[in-house]
Design brief:
Number of domains: 2
Structural class: alpha/beta
CATH superfamily of the largest domain: Transcription elongation factor, GreA/GreB, C-terminal domain
CATH class of the largest domain: Alpha Beta
Oligomer: single chain
Strand order of the largest sheet: 5-4-3-7-6
Number of helices: 3
Largest sheet: 5 strands, mixed
Shape: elongated
Order of helices and strands: EHHEEEEHEE
CATH topology of the largest domain: Chitinase A, domain 3
CATH architecture of the largest domain: Roll
Number of strands: 7
């Protein structure tokens, strides 16, 4: 058998895992978002000291590089003040069916749509940014699909 087709062990031929993708654009965060990033860094630093295998260490180091980069580039934004929607706003809007929704416009790393926290770069957030109470917003290919009911600061 030719040496070209022989493997001593499969592990030496594994492809390295790619780095975690960093969202494009500025890394805007709320104070809560910065706290979450700090907690993730601490979590992975602790996990790194307890890693049992080289494979586990590499996986943790990969995640830790991502969270350290996010911490280094984080721009903590001041609390929302004003009457037009921007980063840090809590927005209540009504859709065309009359259903009311509430969302907080936050950084990419703290977004959780199930909790009503959407990234300021999401399509919905981009549609809402710059609007004021009472404005009708085009969204999802529909004209005047959303109506802004109220705007305020994120309180939690």
């Amino acid at each position: 058998m030719s040496v070209a087709f022989r493997r001593d062990v499969d592990e030496e031929h594994l492809e390295p895992r790619p780095e975690l993708p960093v969202p494009p654009g500025p890394n805007l965060v709320t104070p809560r978002g910065m706290t979450l990033i700090e907690a993730r860094v601490a979590e992975f630093e602790t996990a790194l000291t307890a890693a049992a295998t080289e494979e586990e260490t590499k996986a943790i180091e990969r995640d830790l590089r991502y969270w350290r980069a996010r911490r280094a580039t984080a721009q903590v934004m001041p609390a929302f003040v004003g009457d037009t929607i921007r980063f840090g706003a809590r927005v209540t809007y009504q859709d065309a069916a009359g259903k009311t929704h509430r969302v907080d416009l936050v950084g990419a790393d703290e977004a959780g749509p199930a909790e009503g926290r959407i990234a300021f770069t999401s399509p919905l957030a981009r549609a809402l940014i710059g609007a004021a109470e009472g404005d009708l917003i085009d969204f999802g290919g529909k004209t005047e699909a959303l109506e802004v009911v109220s705007i305020g600061a994120i309180s939690d």
